[in-house]
Amino acid sequence: MRKTRVFLADDHRVVIEGIKSALSEHPEFEIVGEALNGRDAVKKSEILKPDIVILDISMPELNGINVTIHLKEISPDIGIIVFTMYSDEEYVIDLFEAGISAYVLKEDHMSELIMALNAVRSGSIYFSGVVKKIIQQHLKNLTKGKKRQKDAFRDLSLREREVFQLLIKGFSIKDIAGKLDISPKTVESHKYNLMEKLNADTFADLTRIAIKKKLLDL
């Protein structure tokens, strides 16, 4: 049977090494690459074409939600496993709606991640403990016609999210233009649009939103 190709994305090297060690006992999985930030995760995944990507939510350059959106646009069938310390309802539902296949908390035993991998490998889904309850409640709310509270951040385009994350990391307009391979004028336009959508007047407003969205660590 063909090995399942796995890509790892986490900004902590120790986490990547821990997963690699755990998977060394499971020859059905082959680690084909790794990345320490979200942008590299997307670029390398485009080239390596893994079957499954294991990623964290909070990562430099692009967070886990944006990486998931990117990867699902490139390859709708790719399996995404979120492996994170965050169990906030907002992130769980955003990622669920973005199309992830599994969600495991880092506080869980490593065996949970292996179970998630096996589930996704067989075409199933896997959500651990509290995450499963959040998703079940979300689905119940949908059947009852209850909509999620409006969040302006969800209205941002993928490019606006990219510009937002780079802005609050301190990159200049010129630097962002170079990273995204677009003109400084286009970056300025995205900045204006995202600030208007978020009702943000100052950089401090953007920073508060970024902290709430786990795009910026305190």
Tell me about this structure.
With 218 residues, the protein is an alpha/beta fold. The protein has two domains: 4-143, Response regulator (Rossmann fold); 152-212, Arc Repressor Mutant, subunit A (Orthogonal Bundle), CATH 1.10.10. It has helices at residues 13-23, 38-48, 64-74, 89-98, 110-121, 129-143, 158-168, 173-180, 184-197, 203-212, and strands at residues 4-9, 29-35, 52-55, 79-84, 102-105, 126-127. Strands 2-1-3-4-5-6 form a six-stranded parallel β-sheet, with helices on both faces. Helix 2 (38-48) runs parallel beside helix 3 (64-74), helix 7 crosses helix 9 and helix 8 (173-180) packs across helix 9 (184-197). The radius of gyration is 18 Å and the shape is globular. The mean pLDDT is 91.
N-to-C CA distance = 46 Å
Tell me the quaternary state.
single chain
Strand order of the largest sheet: 2-1-3-4-5-6
What form results from the Cα inertia axes?
Answer: globular
Fourth-level CATH superfamily of the largest domain: Response regulator
| Average residue-wise pLDDT | 91
- Helix tally equals 10
Low-confidence stretches: none
CATH class membership of the largest domain: Alpha Beta
Helix content class? 40-55%
Rg over CA atoms, rounded to whole Å, is 18 Å
The SS-based structural class is: alpha/beta
- Taken in chain order, the helices and strands follow as EHEHEHEHEHEHHHHH
